[in-house]
Amino acid sequence: MAIGEAALAAKFAVMRSFLDERGWRVYLGSEANALGYGGVAVVARAAGVSQTTVAAGAREAADQGALEALEPGRSRRPGAGRPRAEDAQPGLRQALDGLLEEGKRGDPVSAVTWNILSLRDIAAQMALRGFAVSKDTVARLMRADGYSLQGMSRVLEGRQHEDRDGQFRNINAEIARALADGEPAVSVDGKKKEQLGAYHRAGKSWRPAGDPVRVRSHDFPEQDGTVISPYGVYDIAANRGFVSVGTSRDTAAFAVHAIRLWWQQEGSLRYPGATRLLVTCDAGGSNSYRTRLWKDQLAVLAAQTGLRIEVMHFPPGTQCRCLSYANYRSVCAVADA
């Protein structure tokens, strides 16, 4: 870089932060006009911009009377500049939403969640669908839809079967089929056991200043204390959770009884013409695929309700987080099992 260009570059570095897009362009153009022949190329190299930008600024600077007045806060006239990818390619947003729908992470509306593709992979998949979009545009659109960049979570255990993702896709397809037919589909899971009493709980509540709720300094259980076992039933179509709270054990009989209570108090009212019920759950605990009592009690429930009950288990070591985000009823039921 010549000495003159180096001096210009130093001056441009100072001025850039003080000017908006239009002011920066006109300023560069005025410098190019002052240099005369070849000034556009010199200024473009010193500023690190294209010669087209400098030439446009030079024309605007040379004809001050032709400068169009813009609204406060705008550096371009309405409609100027390159159109956004989603505006230039109709259907791009819908195609991207369809590609991401089954991979949404942390979205309570999504039936089943799992890891999504990288930005480059998503851009490549969009290209196969006929849309030219960069990874940066994909990131911008995803942020607008509520996605965020997240770190890894240590939740995987043991080896993963090659058909793990395929099982999630099968479950999601069956849920979509049930919802399209107007049939109920629920996700069930046992939740963390809690001790009743003056024990510490996560979260905050509105209290007078300096008057917090006082609880025990330690969480050691009392000899005669009560431990509750919540069991959640999440209605996927209604995005509504139902919790049964047991005071004994989280058994298969208790799990099915929680589904029975949900059907009696909500499901049968929300789906009066239902002929079948799709139940999705993890592969362990009271609703384990190995537990015979779980299958026996589901058969009893099917006979009582007249429903065809279909169960689909998530692969081992995985679970659905929908129950953490559902719109729960505050108190649903208390039952022993």
CATH class of the largest domain, anyone?
Answer: Alpha Beta
- What is the tally of beta strands? 8
* Contiguous helical run count: 12
Instruction: Classify the secondary structure makeup into a structural class.
Output: alpha/beta
Provide the CATH architecture of the largest domain: 2-Layer Sandwich
Reading the helices and strands in chain order gives HHHHHHHHHEEEEHEHEHEE
Strand content: 5-15%
Low-confidence stretches: 322-337
The tally of structural domains comes to 3
Instruction: Report helical residue fraction.
Output: 40-55%
Characterize the main sheet: 8 strands, mixed
Shape: elongated
Radius of gyration, taken over Cα atoms and rounded to an integer in Å: 31 Å
Mean pLDDT, as a whole number?
Answer: 80
**Termini, distance in Å?**
82 Å
CATH structural fold name of the largest domain: Nucleotidyltransferase, domain 5
Structure summary:
With 337 residues, the protein is α/β, with parallel strands linked by helices. The chain has twelve helices and eight strands.
Describe it for me?
There is one protein chain. The protein is α/β, with parallel strands linked by helices. The protein has three domains: 3-66, no CATH class; 85-144, no CATH class; 165-197 and 225-335, Nucleotidyltransferase, domain 5 (2-Layer Sandwich). The chain contains twelve helices and eight strands. β5, α11 and β6 form a beta-alpha-beta unit. The model is unreliable at 322-337 (pLDDT under 50).
What are the key terms here?
8-stranded mixed beta sheet, Nucleotidyltransferase, domain 5, disordered C terminus, 337 residues, elongated, alpha/beta, single chain, 12 helices
